[in-house]
Amino acid sequence: MKRYDLVIIGAGMIGLAHAWHAAQAGLSVAVVERSGAADGASVRNFGMLAIVAQKPGPELDSARAALEAWQQIAAGAGISMRRAGCLFAARIPEEMQVLEECASAQGHAFELVSGADLSHRAGVPLQADLLGGIWSPDAWKVDQRQAMAKMAAWLQRAHGVTFHFDTEARAIAGNIVETATGAIHADHVIVCAGDEFATLLPEAFAASGVTRCRLQMLRTVPQPATWRLDPFLLGGLSMTRYSVFADCSGLSALKAHQQARQAACLANGIHVIACQEDDGSLTIGDSHHYGDGAGPARSEEVDQLLLGELAALAALPEPEIAKRWIGCYAHLPGESALVLHPLDGVTAVTLTNGQGMTHGLSVARGVIGTLFGSG
Asked: Is 27 helix (H, G, I), strand (E, B) or coil?
C-alpha cells in the first residue's frame, strides 16, 4: 500500500490550494473527494477574487499573494481568468459619501466615477438616477464552474498529485484514512471539507463554535452579445459588509438608512453582486442566513429582493432566470479561517468568511509552510 507525505480530504478550493503548495514543496500528495468533482461552495460562487474588498494591511496582503498564485495556476491549468475590475454604484447621498471617502483612502487604486460616466465604466447602460460610484481594477474573474476540475486535472498531470474521486473518507485512524474503497496511509492528513462537519472530526468542529452560512443565488439566460457588463457590479448593501469601507465615517449614516429603508434585505443578509460569465449569462447574488439550520428552503421573497436591488442599478435586456441554487460555507464570527489540530498528524482547515477564492491559496501556503517547513 502506497504511503503519501500528505493526504487531503476534499477537492474544493481549499483542498486543491493545499495540494498545490504541498506539490510545490516536493511532497507526495493524494486527494480524496467523495464526489466525481468538487460541487460545493467552490463552484457555487461568483468566481470573484475580491482584492478590492480587503482592508489594507494583512487582509489585502493575503489577497494579493493569493492572486499571484492564481495567475500561475490559471496559466498552467488553462483556467479562464480576466481582470474584470469592480464598480460600486451609489443610489443615495449616504452611499455616495462612503464611496467618496473610500476613494481617497490609502492602499487601493480607486477611481471616483460621476453619475454621467457610470454606464461607460460599466460597459452597459445603468439606471439614469444613480449618483456616481467608484471603480477599481483590482477584482479578477475566474470561471468558477470549471476552475476546480481544471486545476485538479493539472495537479495530477503536471505535479503528480494522486486523486481518488467518488471516494468517501469514512474515518481517520492514526496515519490511515479509511475510505469506502480501502485504506490510504499518510504522514499527515489535512481535512478540507468545507462546511461538512458531521462525517469527520465532529467533536473538534463543535468545540470551535463554527457554524454555517447558507446563501441563495441566481443565473440568467445569456444576455445579447452587444450587452457586456465588464466589471463586477455592486451597490450600497455591499458597502456595509466589506472591510475596505470599515473606516469610513459616513458608514454609520448609511447603516441607519438601511435599517430604516432596507430592513427586509438586512434580515436576509442580502448584498447584491452581479457579474457576467463567459457564455453571456449573469450570475446574481446573494443572501446570507447563519446557523446550523440557517435559513428557510429556497425563498421566492429572497429572489425578488435580489432582483429588485439589481434592477435599481441596471435593467437587463434578458431578465429570465435560467438557474437558481443554494450554497453553503463555514462561518465563524470574527475569523477568516479556522485551522484545527484535533489529532496527532491531522489538521482541519476551512475558510469561515466566504472568501475562499480570494484567500484560500494564502491560507494554504501558511498551513503547508507551518507543517512541513516550506515556503
From this structure: coil
Phi, psi (degrees; rounded to nearest 5) at 343: -140, 160
The rounded distance, in Å, linking the Cα atoms of 142 and 79 is 7
Are 222 and 164 in a shared domain?
no
Domain-located, residue 63? no
Supply the pTM of this predicted model: 0.95
Provide the phi-psi class of 194: left if phi over 0, else alpha when psi is between -120 and 50, else beta: left
293: Cβ contacts below 8 Å, ≥ 6 apart:
none
Q: How many domains does the chain have?
A: 2
Residues 6+ apart with CB under 8 A from 271: 234, 235, 237, 238, 240, 241, 265, 286
Q: Is 253 helix (H, G, I), strand (E, B) or coil?
A: helix
Per-residue pLDDT at 198 exceeds 90: no
Answer yes or no: are the C-beta atoms of 18 and 188 closer than 8 Å: no
Largest CA distance in the chain: 67
Instruction: Note down the domain range covering 27.
Output: 3-47+145-209+334-372
Q: Is residue 62 part of a domain?
A: no
The predicted model gives 259-288 an average pLDDT of: 96
Residue 39, pLDDT above cutoff 80: no
Between 325 and 36, residue with greater pLDDT: 325
Residues 171 and 194 in one domain: yes
> Across-strand partners of 327?
215
DSSP 2: -
Q: Is the pLDDT of residue 292 over 80?
A: no
Residues 167 and 183 in one domain: yes
Q: Is the residue at 75 inside a domain?
A: no
pLDDT, one tens digit per residue, over 143-165 is: 998 999 999 999 999 999 999 99
Read off the pLDDT band of 215 (50, 70, 90): very high
Is the pLDDT at 294 greater than 80? The verdict is no
